[in-house]
Write a structure and sequence with these properties.
The protein is of the alpha+beta class. The protein has seven helices and ten strands.
């Protein structure tokens, strides 16, 4: 079964209205094998395990499935034994992959839609038996999650194989001319009737064909050597000439120092030797402005001297409280509600 799709529905004996979720993993491992995938649309829908094993996955694999009842919180454990053997029947060298935009992956996994797709795609092939090779969700190929609008689907890639060669219709769809038309936004070249419509809406710009009837040339196995390169006179290293770095060091150090010294001298000349002085300032100022300035300055000094020499008694708010009769600093024991906040000044 290494060349066919394996799909297993996960169901438990509960009413359809009971929400159930599943968790599947390989026995002794936290995740599923690399070729096996799990999908479930919602807790009210069945879950599916699907995938296509490779020749490296031959053998026996045990899958543990745990079902969770979301209402009663009951759990059920079940083990699935998968025996993967070599494929039976003739090889299928002619393989075609279609992108179906009108379905999700769980809608194609049951046997009825899968057989309907094989029957419909037989009209695009030469007479022969077709076999389903792989089913992959478009989201696993980098597709975008559709908007929650009725009729929008995620999409699914379906690969079909046959021993019969491709028809001229499929070759024309996968031709470079057809891909060039798709890149320009035009419909692809389809010379035959679309037998997949209206049940399956196929994106004909994403059809890929694989022809394995012609064996690929075997890769040349490199011969291991002893790890030592052979002597080549033309690749011998050249001798490096001696070089004196004293000049470079002097230029690197002296040039910045000279520039800094020149800037320092220029700044000192501007700050110390280019000062105009008070005499030049006074000569450039008008007499009226100088008299006005001196008058303001003299009046200011006179007001300061008068403020410093006047004798004014300190306000009572700055003096300590005392009792006039006893001379104590503390106020007398009287009702504080009848004592004025500010005493009269005499």
């Amino acid at each position: 079964m290494a060349a066919a799709v394996i799909w297993i529905p996960l169901l438990v004996a509960v009413p359809p209205t009971v929400p159930v979720t599943y968790h599947a993993h390989l026995q002794g491992h936290p995740d599923l094998p690399r070729w096996l995938r799990y999908t479930q649309r919602s807790p009210h829908h069945p879950g599916f395990l699907y995938g296509t094993p490779t020749p490296e996955d031959r053998g026996q694999q045990v899958i543990e499935v745990i079902a969770y009842n979301r209402d009663s919180f009951d759990t059920t454990r079940q083990k699935l034994l998968l025996l993967i053997e070599d494929p039976e029947g003739p090889p299928l060298p002619y393989q075609a992959e279609f992108l179906v935009r009108s379905h999700d992956v769980e809608e194609v996994l049951p046997s009825s839609p899968a057989s309907r797709f094989l029957t419909a795609s037989a009209g695009l092939w030469e007479p022969g038996e077709l076999q389903l090779l792989n089913i992959t969700s478009a989201l696993d190929r980098g597709g975008r999650v559709p908007l929650p609008i009725e009729g929008r689907k995620e999409g699914v890639y379906i690969k079909v194989g046959s021993a019969s060669p491709f028809s001229s219709c499929l070759k024309m769809v996968a031709s470079p001319d057809s891909h060039a038309r798709c890149a320009q936004g035009q419909p692809p070249l389809l010379s035959c009737y679309d037998t997949l419509a209206p049940h399956f809406r196929v994106d004909w710009c994403n059809v890929s064909l694989v022809d394995k009837s012609v064996p690929e040339p075997a890769d040349q196995v490199p011969t291991p050597g002893d790890g030592i390169l052979e002597h080549d006179p033309s690749c011998s290293p050249t001798k490096a000439t001696a070089r004196d770095f004293l000049t470079d060091a002097l230029v690197t150090l002296l040039v910045p120092l000279l520039v800094a010294l020149l800037l320092t001298l220029l700044l000192a000349y501007v700050m110390c030797c280019r000062r105009e002085g008070r005499l030049k300032r006074d000569l450039a100022t008008s007499d009226i402005q100088m008299v006005h300035h001196c008058t303001i300055r003299g009046n200011t000094e006179e007001l300061r001297q008068m403020a410093a020499s006047r004798e004014v008694p300190r306000p009572l708010s700055t003096l300590p409280m005392f009792n006039v009769r006893t001379g104590e600093r503390l106020p007398p024991q009287v009702d504080s509600a009848q004592v004025p906040l500010i005493l009269d000044q005499h």
